[in-house]
Amino acid sequence: MPPTIAIQGQLGSFHHGVATTFFGDDITLLCQPTFRDAFEALDTGAADYCVAAIENTLHGTIIDTLDLVARYDIHIIGEHIEHIEQQLIGFQGTNLEDIREVSSHFAALNQCREYLQTHLPHAEVIEHHDTAGAVADIKSRGDRHAAAIAGVAAAAYHNMPILAANIEDEKDNFTRFFIASKHKHTVPEANKASLILTTSHQSGALYRALGVLERYGVNLTKLESRPIRGHAFRYQFFVDVEINAVTLSSATRELEAQSCDVTLLGHYRAAR
Question: What contacts 255, CB < 8 A, 6 or more positions away?
Answer without folding.
Answer: 197, 209, 212, 262
